[in-house]
Amino acid sequence: MRAYGRVLAASVLLGGLLICGHQARAANPITIDMPGGARITYGPVAGATTQGDAMLSLLRFIHRSHGDRPNVGNAFRFRDTDSVGIFFTLVNRQAGNVEVAGLIIVAQNGPNQVEAALLTDRADRFGESINPMLTKVYEVWHPAGLASVNGPSTGIAQSAAPAAVAPSGPIPPMRKVILPDRTASISLPDGWNITQESGGGTIFVAGPSGEKIVCNATNSAQDPTNPGYKRFRQNYRGPVPANIVMVPFNADFVRNFRDLYLRICSTMKFNPGEVRVDSAEALPAAQGAHCVRATLHINPPDSGPTELGETLCACGLDPTTGFYHFEVSLYRLPVAVADRQRATAVAILSTFEWDEALVRQRANADVAPILASMKKSWDDQQRALIAGNQAIAAGIRQTGENALARARATQQMYDQQHRDWEKGQVDRDRTQQGFHNYILDQTVIRDIQDPNTHATVWNRTAEVWQKAFPDRIEQVPVQQYIQGRDF
User: Fold this and answer.
1) Which of 221, 332, 395, 414 has its CA 20 to 30 A from that of 482?
2) Of all helices (H) and strands (E), which one includes residue 450?
3) Same domain as 266, residue 329
4) Which of 4-8, 153-157, 179-183 has the least mean pLDDT?
């Protein structure tokens, strides 16, 4: 235990991530040793201007200093704050292969200023030590991003801890479970099991007392206010499928979460009974998406009073049809066990991982024949339209010319939409490549004297080059990846 603690302290403090020498008021990072070997380290994150930058920098450094890539869960926002957290586990190769679990909390402390706290312990003790560590860190750490929870800097009580890890029973030890199709994994305590409908990157979990957890489920939706929807209905006049949620993509999901939840329940033929929304808040989301996190109480006829914590993201809007989808992760806890199992449910959700590339590969193979048939139908319709326009133009030249002019204008609009869509795809692919490079321990470097000379190399190779040629070699930010060369 002490060997693990010494390595952790050295990796964080000597690494220089949790420092901020450019601010006169900033102190060195502070480390607190908790009883039993748990450890808290907190302070500013040097060089980070956003919460995402800070999170990625800490994960990269923890990976390098411990010799093992952190197995991370889904990022989540602490209720009533601007801070973001993420759970992780790893094997500390530098201290006798000790299994370690931890939580990173990142808070914006001002423009281009980020602070972070790192809470760690042995994996077999983390479930018992996390709540005492949270209580302690909120007593002593007060960045601006936590102001709505902290209040005065005299400390807070346990009951004011963020809802994502609200006071609850201790988190028991967990084991990693991988789906048979290898598309996703999750860590579960004894008595919690994956159910048969899991697969394709989605996991359903059943707990010992009626608890349910859903990770990465999807619900299809369509925006009836989108111009593409009107064009789609002109070509498809059949009834709207019962499993499609009809709701505007840019609706205020925070204010109207109850209505949205009931619409989704209707498409799933699920009767939630009485629905009371306790809280709903917007979450950070990727470009072109928006997310909300809500806590509800429902009363299904078949299971009785239930607490529901749900994170829902609307994404993937297709401007040509108005189709998009919701990505949903949630826990459902019978009210009788909610206080005891809430922290465990959140911890389980945070361990979920999925292989997006594998899921997409298999999905593309399944839908390829359908897409080919749809394309042929569309091409036939386009050819028929053009032939009709040509016949009209041949008979009534002026009328035909006017019709063609309108068709060209329409086509230009379609082309612009397609160019905008392609640009969005390029931005998404560039961001995904940055994340893939992190997963694969790779970095893009370039020659400072010739910025267009890019190369993707292993992180260790990049470090060797940068040390050997500090005035020539530098790391390329993700935003400056070159299409066709770096991704």
Assistant:
1) 414
2) strand 450-458
3) yes
4) 153-157
